[in-house]
Specification:
Layout (H helix, E strand, L loop, with lengths): L2 H5 L1 H11 L6 E5 H4 L5 E4 L2 E4 L3 E6 L6 H14 L5 E6 L1 H5 L5 H8 L2 E5 L19 H15 L12 H24 L7 H11 L5 H4 L2 H9 L8 H27 L6 H9 L2 H13 L6 H13 L7 H11 L9 H8 L5
Helix pairs in contact: 7-8, 7-12, 7-15, 8-9, 8-11, 8-12, 12-13, 13-15, 15-16, 15-17
């Protein structure tokens, strides 16, 4: 039995009971908590779920977004967590699953909370070498957020308590994303955070001195991040170190994904601008989902903004794309002005 589900039995029982009202075939907890490796923040003998809760519903027929949102809002009023993500698939969707990181983790390392316990057998067998290099793009899209959304509005200040723990946990996610890129690039992907470190140490640590120096930090702050005070100077140093390594590791991984040599933020942006999938998505959102029409420009803006941590000349490009997103902007926005408007902050 997943020990974290036992530890937070009230939260997961409430969640399961509420979701069964939607009449799913199965309710699956995936992601960190599905593997029993979710982050927990401890303060004054009380524990809080730090990672988001990821739920997959297996349904006979897709449920309306309105009903899902209503359930999610109700859950968030009772469960002390920042995010609850609820997605849904049919049995046919499972049978047609591709060789992605998401599906690999789902099939082999998730927890069924309710329903058919054999439902994940519908997902075809996925071997590590079958995981596509395109997964590296997805990791980039999601983890570049961590540099920008890990601290509150107002710029970098000393952090302590929950805010310090949250920042450290986000940086651990960045470190693990880089390890995932290296593992995927070499057909050695594993789901468990502990195993990722083991495989990295065994095969790759000698080639990544900077990343190697952050392994203990990643392990500690992924599972039980410290609330100890962290100073501005240390925050800036960590952001700079990890941003530099992030672009090196992802440049190498994205070179495989795009089958061309890529080096640094500017060339990453150039690859995104020529990526047919991204461009089709941009076109589709412009036509059919106006609420998401800025996603492509936000991705480019985030890339340049994080890139400016290590190369200040890139900031002007971040400003350029920010003004495409926020056309009412007429002045000279600061780094923090842009940051708080292109990511959703929790503080």
């Amino acid at each position: 039995m997943n020990r974290q589900i036992q530890k937070f039995s009230f939260e997961f029982e409430y969640l399961t009971n509420l979701l069964t009202s939607l009449d799913p075939i199965s309710i699956i907890l995936y992601g960190s908590f599905g593997r029993g490796e979710g982050a927990i923040y401890s303060f004054k003998k009380e524990d809080k779920l730090l990672n988001d809760i990821d739920i997959l519903l297996i349904v006979k027929k897709k449920i309306s977004d309105k009903r899902i949102k209503k359930i999610k809002d109700k859950l968030l009023k009772k469960i002390d967590v920042e995010w609850i993500d609820i997605t849904q698939k049919t049995q046919i969707d499972l049978k047609n699953s591709n060789a992605s990181v998401f599906n690999y983790d789902l099939k082999y390392h998730s927890t069924i909370l309710y329903g058919d316990v054999n439902i994940l057998n519908l997902i075809p067998t996925i071997k590590k070498h079958e995981i596509n290099y395109n997964e590296i793009k997805i990791l980039f899209y999601s983890r570049i957020w961590c540099f920008l959304g890990s601290y509150k509005k107002g710029g970098i200040v000393n952090l302590e308590g929950y805010e310090a723990a949250y920042f450290k946990n986000q940086m651990a996610k960045v470190i693990y994303a880089m390890i995932d890129v290296i593992l995927i690039s070499n057909n050695k992907y594993v789901s468990s955070y502990y195993k990722k470190i083991e495989v990295f140490k065994e095969f790759f640590s000698a080639d990544y001195d900077s990343l190697n120096s952050y392994l203990s930090y990643a392990l500690e702050n992924k599972f039980s991040p410290s609330s100890d005070k962290i100073l501005v100077s240390e925050i800036r140093s960590i952001l700079s170190d990890l941003a530099s390594e992030f672009f090196k590791v992802f440049s190498s991984g994205l070179s495989l994904a795009y089958n061309k040599e890529i080096n640094g933020p500017e060339q990453i942006v150039r690859a995104f601008k020529r990526d047919h999938r991204l461009l089709i998505k941009k076109w589709m959102f412009n036509l059919f989902k106006p609420s998401r029409k800025n996603e492509f420009n936000e991705l480019i803006c985030r890339t340049y903004l994080v890139g400016s941590i290590i190369n200040k000349d890139l900031f002007s490009q971040a400003v350029k794309y920010y003004k495409l997103i926020n056309r009412e902007e007429r002045g000279n926005p600061t780094y923090d002005d842009i940051r708080v408007n292109i990511v959703k902050l929790i503080f």
